[in-house]
What we know:
Number of helices: 7
Strand content: 25-35%
Largest sheet: 12 strands, mixed
Shape: globular
Number of domains: 2
Radius of gyration: 19 Å
CATH class of the largest domain: Alpha Beta
CATH architecture of the largest domain: 3-Layer(aba) Sandwich
Structural class: alpha+beta
Oligomer: single chain
CATH superfamily of the largest domain: Gcn5-related N-acetyltransferase (GNAT)
CATH topology of the largest domain: Aminopeptidase
Amino acid sequence: MINREDIVYICKATSNFTTCEKEDFLTIFNTVFDKDYGLDWFNWKYIDNIYGDSYIVLAYYDGKAVGIRAFWRNDIDGFKCFQPCDTAVLKEYRGLGIFTKMTLQALDNTKGAFIYNYPNENSRPGYLKLGWSINKYFYLKPVLNKKKLKDEYKYIEDEYLYWRFIKSPINKYSYCEIDGESYLLYRRKDNIYYVLGKFNSKYQGQLERADSPILFKYTDKKGFINNFLKNKATVVSFNNAADFADNIDIPIFKADYF
């Protein structure tokens, strides 16, 4: 019988992580999600982060790491923000309130920041139960008029583009050019791509060019076609004592899952 009172929680800034703690994090992550990510991924995402420290909670039982919960530093428009992601609990330790405990500890360590996330249908109720609110919906639509993209997408800052997308050790990204504007693309399958945002054309050489791509876009404006596609992303947010929360406009390209 596992006694939940014997579970120990440690929340640390990622710059203070030991090699052993990084390995504990990777062991749980890879086990739960059936991945084979290494220290290069952890260091890229959490140590080389251009915004600074993220906060990660590690849960231990009898000296063994059993749960992880990351609040990934991912600022928006110069405002201090965190995005919960990379959360996992070993199967035999679920149902013990570990997710809630880890979330509360992470929130306690990120006071004064704006917290946002793009949860799936399974995890969204858990966020709402903890007091988060639905911020917006993004609806997936085919791009029927490519010229309109210029006014629909935010510009991805150079430093963020380079760190988040070009230097990613796990994903490769593409681009297309329309009327002199460069658009960052995420390949969904075959020749189908999602448009993530606009970027500085000088970085085209570090991305793969997509030839005649079939483009889809995420927009916060619902249309008739969404009744058929039934594909949307929900954005939830939590004002963790931030005095700038009303000024945050969350873009789709900040989503961890791209």
